[in-house]
Specification:
The chain is an alpha/beta fold. It has nine helices and ten strands.
Length: about 260
Amino acid sequence: MSGKRGTLYLVPNALDFGIAGADEAVSLDEVLPLGVLRIAARLEHWVAENARSTRAFLKRVERVVPLAHALQQIGIVELPRPPKGGHKSVAAPDLAPLLAPLLAGHDLGLISEAGLPAVADPGAALVQAAHAAGIEVVALPGPSSLLLALAASGLNGQSFAFVGYLPVDAPARAARLRELEALSRKAQQTQLLIETPYRNGAMLDAMLAHLQPGTRIAVSCGLTAPGAFTRSDTVARWRAQPSALPADRPTVFALLAD
């Protein structure tokens, strides 16, 4: 298709998604650059994980920068769900229709539920499709819970890996934790992981039960939201002075073996 093409903007979101009252307590211009909010305010086309939460995001934007289009006129298309289980035999969703506004010359925003799009997020496939179509992709600056947690942990920020979610099954989770600890010890590499908030306590309990006393654990909870905290200590000191974790706040866990 000929003619001028739009730009795909990767628009960061606040990190307080799902934290009761946080969107009222924290103005977006406290966590996102004003330039990002100005771009978000003018976009008429969006691709999102969830249309409802994206409308809520745009309402927060409007408190700082007036929207260029009425909220009812802004098009929000949800990303198709990836195949369950990650089986290669299942065909990946066709993302070409989502690029239509870009090919017609309109800019398009891609947004995650929280943090940076395409980082620990299904939006990466759309970014790849945009590159394949020769469309300009611009990542806008904003908070990443993973990097903020790493910075606040005091663990090795020169070598680190994000490993996502661990198995829910207790024996499989224990085995994975020991595997990550061995890898961390061998490479002196920080391992970052996340959990569904209501299982925060179970994850911390598993880490304290199965990791060695000298291994360091850092927990960053509800980053950028009111009441956010990071605690970084050895397993031995965590066991001696346990901390309860809230079951309704996104949390990043990190470990570094000695």
